[in-house]
Amino acid sequence: MNSLPLTRRSLLQRTACGFGSLALSGLCGQYSGAAPLAAPLGLHHQPRAKRVIFLFMQGGPSQVDSFDYKPALARYADKRVEFDVARTMKVTPERVFPSPWKFSQYGRSGQWVSDLFPSIGQQVDDLCQLRGMHTEGVAHGPATLFLHTGATNLIRPSVGSWITYGLGSENQNLPGFITICPTAAKGGPRNYSNGFLPTQFQGTAIGRAGVPVGQAGIRHVTNGQLSFAEQQSQLALLQSLNREQLTGGPDDDVLEATIGSFELAFRMQQHAPQVMDLSQETAATNALYGIGEKATDDYGRQCLLARRFAEAGVRFIQVNYADNSNNPRWDQHSNIQKHEFHARAVDKPVAGLLQDLKARGLLEDTLVWFGGEFGRTPFAQGNDGRDHNPKGFTVWLAGGGVQAGTSYGATDEFGYTAEVDRVHMHDLHATILHLLGTDHQRLTYRHAGRDFRLTDLYGRVVSEIFA
Question: What is the value of pTM for the model shown?
Answer without folding.
Answer: 0.87
